[in-house]
Amino acid sequence: MSSTLLEVTRASHEEVERLERLVVKDLQTEPATNKDRLHQSHRVRNMIEQIIDTTHKLVDIYEDKDGARKDEIAALGGQTATGTNIFSAFYDRLKEIREYHRRHPAARVVIDASDDYEQLLKEEPQIEFSGEEGSGRYLDLHELFNEYYNSKFGARIEYTAYLDVFSQPQKIPCKAKSTRPYREYLQKLLEYLIYFFERTEPLQDLDRIFSKVTSEFEEEWTIGKVEGWENSSQENGSAPQNHTAIDLNSYSTVEELMIEGPDKLKEALGALGLKTGGTIQQRAERLFLTKHTPLEKLDKKHFAKGSRKPEQNGVMPAPQVGDDVKEIALMEAKIRKLCDLLDETIVRTKENVEKKQALTYEEMEAEREEDDVQAESESDEEDQQIYNPLKLPMGWDGKPIPYWLYKLHGLGQEFKCEICGNHSYWGRRAYERHFKEWRHQHGMRCLGIPNTKNFNEITSIEEAKQLWERIQEKQGLNKWRPDLEEEYEDQEGNIYNKKTYTDLQRQGLI
Q1: What is its subcellular localisation (predicted)?
Q2: For 262-342, where are the alpha helices, taking DSSP H only?
């Protein structure tokens, strides 16, 4: 039966709700190993992408640009081309259903598709990792290291040292960064880090992270605060046209400009590609021309030999170089951000490389097999359910303790303490120990009774109160003691007990 547009809408909403429930159910399960964590993350990522695709289809249906949804709703009400006729619309739909089942006699109606969706939780997505990456635990930068090692912008260092410096491109001189090999190396490094990050952290929104990095970079680039590129405009010749060593807006005549001196005028002319020779007045006049006249409109006689006028070839070379430099600086900013996110992985990679340098090939292979077996055993143990029909307490290894040990310690005997809020203690040993624990001490403190040895084995509140009263009577705490309870008042109205008042009077203080 051909699905109507409204049926497609209903099925799409149902699919989105089912996928959302599956995502929640999958994330509630704590993965046992790193491999399980990767599989879970990729499963959730795939389901989120399905939700997004289905939602886009629903948006297109609700926008109804072709009017198909509006026509279908009208048809349900019997509004046809010939007028309103509910019965004819009903019988047309019934005819369509019968025709469908006549052509497809084996067709069945799916009552519950939950089993098909539950299979998504058992999927193990295929994630490709090289042997050096260790299922996403380590980086594999050997190819990039060889390129760095044999380049002019690199250095002759060990691989372990490269793991420390590859995340710091700002330390490379700007002159070395303007070469084509460095740009290609940077592109390969960025592509690898992005590919590795997408495989190991599929739930992270890399586009949003890069969007924030780009916005922060644009602000820093505008004010010249990008790390490692503070003087990039002068070194790469990408300075703006009106940028010189002298602010021409501060001068209104050539004579005032001559005060700057010949050396400074020469430096300003050289920055603009103009001739730097002549007297100080000629230099000042030549430079003063640029205050009101753009460089592309100046006569070519004012430019130094070997330098081209800006209008030649229809473009200015300086801005193009500036765009390339800015693009390289932006790639460096993205690499630094990815290295910050992968900081723990970089540290693990360095530790693994240093460890492997002390092992032979046979030892490395044995260690790799041991890791695989350990990971499989951990996952198998998690899958197995513990058989404990007697409901014995768990031991230190997470398994039930032996039954003879259970009987030896009397763990089947229950003791209740009213002072502890009717809390149950299993076994004589736990019961005797609880009199010194915080729960019993708090209960005695609430009753206003000191938790001494006299109250051991007493768990009833009433018995504890009666015992405390008898102890007080024996100690004479309820008798009248005039030296402590009889009050005296001095001339200033201060109140003392008899003992304190007598001591102060003997000292002559009152």
Answers
A1: Nucleus
A2: 262-272, 280-292, 317-341
